[in-house]
Amino acid sequence: MKIRFSDADEAFRAEVAAWLAEHLRGEFAALRFRGGPGDEHSFPEARKAWERKLAEGRWTCVGWAPEHGGRGLSISQQVIFHEEYARAGGPGRMGHIGEGLAGPTIAAFGTLDQKRRLLPGIVAGTEFWCQGYSEPGAGSDLANVRTRAVLEGDTWRISGQKVWTSLAHESDWCFVIARTEAGSVGHQGLSFLLVPMDQPGISVRPIEQLTGTSEFNEVFFDGALTDAANILGAPGDGWKIAMALLGFERGVSTLGQQMQFQNELDEIVRIARENGAARDPLLRQRIAEAWCGLRILRYNSLRMLSGPQDGSLRREAMIYKLNWASWHADLGKLAMDVLGPDAELLAGEPYELGRLQAMFLFSRSDTLYGGTNEIQRNIIAERALGMPREPRPRA
């Protein structure tokens, strides 16, 4: 595990910080610290323009191989980029799903034609992706996917429903796990399809959340079409590719996520000092525990990133989701307790939440999306520790 950076890496850090300081102003000044989890509905068009600005500076897809349009940066430099981006208040990335999930998966499993057609738009910040995994009856358990796709000539016809689809209403493409083998059950018979969103067979409906926002959506596929060439891997490879994609999700962007957490913790500490909450010994202890927990997240991530970057999940990666989700949910509670009575007051009408209020409400979902804490514990037990599978009811 590498926890120190070379002189060359620190020079690169200065380059990243200087570029962000120069460009996160003017038309983009209002985007600083906006558009993250719980705030993803904010400034979508301006954040898309910011993606194009990043692309002009070659700051998109920095870890991708040069042949795919990236910079091919080392792990150390990727860590530095994500940390400095969050430290500077870089806005939530509209291209995150494409850059962090779809792109690496296409690069790993796609054909030359798929890479040629689909990767440049991600690099350029002009094409955006969403994820079609969860369904009303198949959230954390993809083995229960019921969305179906049938090959008709040179076209896949897709029918079904996906749910909790972040920014589907802003996306150009969706990668969809669908059942392509009639009569198949469980992990068998699933395929990984790449589907254009702008077509009559797809409708997107917003889901309003506790925060009053609706960056999540339901997506309905009513005979939606995609070319036969838009399948990643072979029919039936969907489960294998879906699992590899989740490995990419545990990549270097986790360090940027942690810097966003640090920004939130810094805000909590600032308020505690200003309103006197820092004099409460119990709150001081909880703040100290939050600080320690965040350092543990960082060290485990660096250990996790010392392994292969091919989408495979080491044991260190398998504990990460459970760890950060639980930590962040506790941070939300700490924020409300530090705010005290102010936590109950809105900044304005009709439902104008403060930054920490929105964080608290959104963090309630951290232990659910991306795999519930219960599912994460099963993954750790069964895949990391080799324990017997959880008993399942007979059909």
From TrEMBL:
This is FadE30 protein. The keyword Oxidoreductase applies. Keywords: FAD, Flavoprotein, Oxidoreductase. Belongs to the acyl-CoA dehydrogenase family. It holds the Pfam family Acyl-CoA_dh_1. It comes from Metapseudomonas furukawaii (Pseudomonas furukawaii). Its cofactor is FAD. The keyword Glycoprotein does not apply. Residues 130-222 form the Acyl-CoA oxidase/dehydrogenase middle domain.
